[in-house]
Amino acid sequence: MGEYSKALSSLERSLEIRKIALPPNHPNLAVSYNNIGLVCSHIGEYSKALSSYERSLEIQKIALPPNHPDLATSYNNIGSMYYNMGEYSKAFSLLERSLEIRKIALPPNHPDLATSYNSIGVVYDKMGEYSKALSSYERSLEVKKIALPPNHPDLATSCNNIAMVYDKMGEYSKALSSLERSLEIFKIALPPNHPDLAISYNNIGLVYYNMGEYSKALQYYEKAQDIWKKSLPSNHPDIVLVKRNIENVKKKM
Question: In angstroms, rounded to a whole number, what is the distance separating the alpha carbons of residues 115 and 194?
């Protein structure tokens, strides 16, 4: 937190200098506001981040062509803040606007398009619109398959997102299939005790739990716990989560 507060004060000082030295709608001012927004977002100051991102967007609208990719990034950032603040319909409309610009400004398989589809999927998922979430996550994965190497961790993340929607829809065999693919990629792409591997193991355990296969669920939860104990602080929320998962499954056995 200390490093972030230092970064924030440095960025705010830089902004004050730029305000004096530059015209009021110079693109570099938009960059300053955007960077302040990023730091505020990292430390959970979402309303301050939101106002910085919105100020950045106002300048970009004047300084840049209407379908410039930087505008899409700003809409995406603002949408993400509304998502973090629980305002999902506002988040959705801004993320859609970001996607529209990216479709015009970028090649059809640019990674930023995959990011947009994924972000929209996350909002649909949170709103309980699972078939729409699934469609967005799958579109994101299609783009990533073309844009990224075959065992890139982002592919595994997409497979994981798809799997967890299938789990919520009660389609457990499809969920397991996607999670196993996610795990295969993570095993190739990451060190053996990377926390993301544990996410896959924990989620496979969750699906088996929902299927009533408690001994298999326990086996995967324990694998997740082993990795998280090696890779995370003892009070980390993921360790607390998997401990609770293990307790719950043992009650069922």
Answer: 23
Question: Is the pLDDT reported for residue 1 higher than 60?
Answer: no
Residues 125 and 75 in one domain: yes
Do 53 and 88 lie in a common domain?
Answer: no
- Domain boundary at 113, 147, 181, which? 147
Contact between 28 and 22 under an 8 Å Cβ cutoff? The reply is yes
Read off φ and ψ for residue 110, nearest 5 degrees: -70, 140
**Does 98 share its domain with 58?**
no
Contact predicate 253/221, CB 8 Å: no
| Dihedral (CA of 214, 171, 184, 243) sign | negative
- The CA angle 100-55-8, to the nearest 5 degrees, is 115
- The residue range of the domain holding 81 is 66-147
Q: For residues 176 and 210, what is the distance between their CA atoms, to the nearest angstrom?
A: 11
Nearest by Cα to 165 from 225, 195, 103, 120: 120
Whether 224 and 199 have beta carbons less than 8 Å apart is answered as yes
Q: How far apart are the first and last CA of the chain?
A: 43
Q: What is the pLDDT of residues 26-77, one digit of tens each?
A: 999 999 999 999 999 988 899 999 999 999 999 999 999 999 999 999 999 9
Residue 96 is which amino acid? E
Residue among 139, 86, 82, 85 at smallest CA distance from 116: 139
CATH number of domain containing 12? 1.25.40
